[in-house]
From TrEMBL:
Gene3D superfamilies, per database record: NAD(P)-binding Rossmann-like Domain (3.40.50.720)
Organism for this UniProt entry: Poseidonocella sedimentorum
UniProt domain NAD-dependent epimerase/dehydratase: residue ranges: 74-178
Name recorded for this polypeptide: Nucleoside-diphosphate-sugar epimerase
Bilayer-crossing regions: none
SUPFAM superfamilies per the UniProt record, alphabetical: NAD(P)-binding Rossmann-fold domains
One Pfam family it belongs to: Epimerase
InterPro entries: Epimerase_deHydtase, NAD(P)-bd_dom_sf
Length: 277
């Protein structure tokens, strides 16, 4: 892809969006010009806009990165509606591709090296809502290419964040192996580089779904140790999954080996450099 790619980032004031904005501010991605959307003017977006509002003020861009979504509560069906809205925006502003933020939760607990071709088996309302969103995306047609990004845990944007910040005490499930949960994570700076790399590819070169994570999973207790945070062990409850990991082979092939391998300590360093002060 030649020249500058303008990218409309929907949901830029969310947890992942704030980290991404900071990462791209500190290290501007070559050939990418992000334009950030938020519903609230106080969050410093380039564009203040709400779903359902007239689109006349939305700028033309080559791509859309749809980070928005509902993660909890009674309105999880809005995830599919927001995917349709992103497609409608793309048609209006002429974007050739849309990257929709999905989740590793579509695979369900206990997945180990889950591949994009594996059948989704969600067990939580959030996971089922993301599967419904992906199915909605699969029905979209028109002039845009659509890809659902099945994102693993993001350091600084998941359930461990408050413990990493030191604002709450940490308790980690201990499994019969003596270890805690093993999860596919990615640090925010690495995520920013991965997304920029995908956005620089030709619009039609991405698959319908794509796992996003660092190549090697990490233990949650290792992230806390790397951050210098104390924690207490608790017995893993019945049904808890020690492993929930993703295959990133397809992502590595697309990025031609540029997917960084990150230890827990490297992820914490990345997060501390990127997190808003």
């Amino acid at each position: 892809m030649s020249g500058e790619t303008r990218v409309l980032v929907l949901g830029a004031s969310g947890r992942v969006g704030r980290l991404l904005r900071r990462a791209w501010f500190l290290a501007p991605p070559p050939a990418i010009r992000p334009i950030y959307q938020s519903r609230q003017p106080g969050s410093g977006p380039d564009v203040v806009w709400r779903p359902g509002a007239p689109m006349d003020d939305l700028p033309p861009t080559e791509a859309i990165l749809a980070l928005w979504g509902v993660t909890s509560g009674d309105d999880l069906t809005q995830n599919a509606a927001l995917a349709r809205e992103a497609a409608r925006i793309a048609s209006h502003i002429g974007a050739r591709r849309v990257l929709h933020l999905s989740s590793a939760a579509v695979y369900g607990p206990g997945c180990d090296g889950a591949h994009e071709e594996d059948a989704p088996r969600p067990t939580t309302p959030y996971g089922r809502a993301k599967v419904a969103m992906e199915r909605e995306v699969a029905t979209l047609n028109g002039g845009s290419a659509h890809t659902c990004l099945r994102l693993g845990n993001v350091v600084g944007a998941d359930s461990l964040t408050a413990a990493l910040d030191g604002t709450v005490p940490a308790r980690i499930d201990r499994f019969p192996t003596g270890a805690g949960p093993l999860r596919s994570y990615i640090a925010p700076g690495a995520l920013a580089r991965v997304l920029a790399g995908l956005l620089r590819l030709d619009a039609g070169s991405l698959p319908p779904v794509l796992n996003i994570a660092a190549p090697e999973p990490v233990r949650m207790e290792d992230l806390l140790r790397a951050a210098g945070r104390p924690f207490d062990w608790q017995p893993a409850p019945p049904g808890a999954a020690e492993r929930a990991t993703l295959s990133t082979d397809r992502l590595a092939t697309l990025l031609r080996g540029a997917l960084p391998r990150s230890t827990a300590a490297e992820m914490i360093t990345d997060w501390r450099e990127v997190r808003p002060r």
